[in-house]
Amino acid sequence: MDKYPTIHVSLGFGRKKRHSYVKRIRTNRQQRQKQHEPSIIHASSRVSPLDTSMKTPTNLLMTSSSGSAYNRLHSPYFISRDINTNTLYIADYNNNRVMSYASGASNGTLVIGGQGSGTNRTQLYYSVGIHFDSVSNSLLIANYGGQHIVRCTLDYSNWTLVAGTPGMVGSSSTLLSYPTGVTLDPMGNMYVADTGNHRIQLFLAGQTNGTTIAGITGLSGSNSTQLYAPYSIRLDNQLNLLVADAMNHRIQKFLRY
């Protein structure tokens, strides 16, 4: 597990909304008591770290204008970091690519994609979730538009399929519907936020058949057993699962499977 957790902020569920705002996600108690809401973060094509002693963020990468040059991004969604090298990996959604940035660099390196949207092994299709696996020195990428999860070894410019079927939407144990979040546990098991199916899927290491461990397949809702467009997922240090339940405006915690 990473020593320092990464907070993922999504630009909205569905392409129609992605340019207008960043979703506000807050924790709901069972009684849904009124909480202090976080400030709205306005969307921009840059990555900015926030020093808690400062009132304004520091622009780490890019300018506020979008683009496809290696010093620009276009609707970046998720980030992941190699804590050993401090390299930052960014899912550059609208450019259909993943970029890497060494510490202090203003120009990135293309890891994979950048050849238009598609499902061949050198393309990405609206990449959203991303997870750096230090054990295999590779990236897991949730290909939102491609309906699958892929693994890209950093030494190569193509990917291998790990879950789902490229271009095929479905709700069976081997199919996905607009996946967004992806993460691994220390045993190599993979967790996927299967957004369109309103569920979280667990894929045991090396397996392509998933098991639903949270939510009800194809049924959105707001009770304790349901999810509504789950977006980002993360494991805590006890391997409990945290889920950003986007359309329910809450964070759900599920005890270790």
Strands of the largest sheet, in order across it? Answer: 1-2-3-4
Under CATH, the topology can be stated as Neuraminidase
Assigned CATH architecture: 6 Propeller
Number of strands: 15
Number of helices: 0
Poorly predicted tracts of residues: 1-44
What would you call the shape?
A: globular
The arrangement of helices and strands along the chain is EEEEEEEEEEEEEEE
Tell me what portion of residues adopts beta-strand conformation.
25-35%
Largest sheet: 4 strands, antiparallel
The SS-based structural class is mainly beta
Gap between N and C termini:
17 Å
Number of domains: 1
Give the integer mean of the pLDDT values: 82
Range of helix content = under 10%
The CATH class, by name, is Mainly Beta
Organism: Rotaria sordida
NHL repeats: 176-206
Region (Disordered): 27-52
GO cellular component, one term: extracellular region
